[in-house]
Design goal:
Elements (H helix, E strand, L loop, with lengths): L1 E5 L19 E6 L9 E4 L8 E18 L5 E9 L9 E4 L17 E3 L2 E19 L10 E8 L2 E9 L5 E6 L4 E6 L4 E2 L3 E4 L2 E4 L1
Antiparallel strand pairs: 1-11, 2-3, 2-4, 4-8, 5-7, 5-8, 6-8, 9-10, 9-12, 12-13, 14-15
Length: 208
């Protein structure tokens, strides 16, 4: 037996053994002025991941203007974006830049909404604020949705057998005591949508 951690209900068909995520030329920046010329600092994004990612600023950085920017032609979708102070509080500011009016989806605490970033999106906190951590969550198609119930089944003896039903508390869901060497499928019981059939090979999920 094994356990199964799921973050998506399907993967990219060309590379079903990975999430097929790519590094794009995106980074966060902070500065003392809105054109980012005075004391500008840069914080590269890590490779997109289906789970929350963090950029830790050990000594903290106290500045008024922050932004996420790219010089690439690529587009990424973000579900959430948070600036955290040393007390663990989420800092609030005013969005500016590309489609700023749509950026509220980055702070709505929902994983099924997203904001498409093509150039830059800034946050004006109104005064210098100390940020010790930037948290961000990439939006991925077919993401596991918080609060949804998921049914895991396997094909045995010519029929589908329900193994477990779990309610997602975050952007991933874990099933324990999953029988090895079987054919599986996952059903979102809220939408009645099924994943493609999949197997587990060398501790990786392979969709068929």
């Amino acid at each position: 037996q094994t356990h199964l951690m799921v973050t998506h209900t399907t993967l990219h068909p060309k590379r079903s053994d990975t999430h097929n995520l790519h590094f794009y030329d995106f980074q966060f920046e902070s500065a003392d002025d809105s054109v980012f010329t005075k004391n500008c600092y840069r914080y590269p994004l890590e490779c997109p991941d289906p789970l929350w990612r963090e950029i830790v600023i050990p000594m903290g950085r106290k500045q008024r203007y922050w932004r996420i920017v790219t010089k690439s032609v690529a587009v990424i979708s973000l579900s959430e974006m948070q600036f955290i102070d040393r007390f663990g509080n989420r800092l609030e500011g005013t969005f500016w830049g590309q489609d700023a009016s749509a950026a509220y989806t980055l702070v709505d605490h929902r994983y099924d909404t997203h904001y498409q970033l093509k150039s830059e999106l800034g946050v004006d906190f109104g005064h210098p604020v100390e940020v010790v951590k930037i948290r961000y969550l990439f939006s991925q198609k077919h993401r596991i949705l918080q609060g949804h119930r998921y049914e895991l089944s396997c094909f045995q003896a010519g029929t589908w057998k329900v193994l477990d039903v779990q309610t997602s508390q975050e952007v991933s869901i874990r099933f324990d005591s999953v029988p090895a060497n079987a054919l599986y499928r996952l059903c979102d019981l809220e939408t009645l949508e099924y994943s493609p059939l999949f197997t587990i090979e060398n501790h990786k999920v392979r969709f068929w």
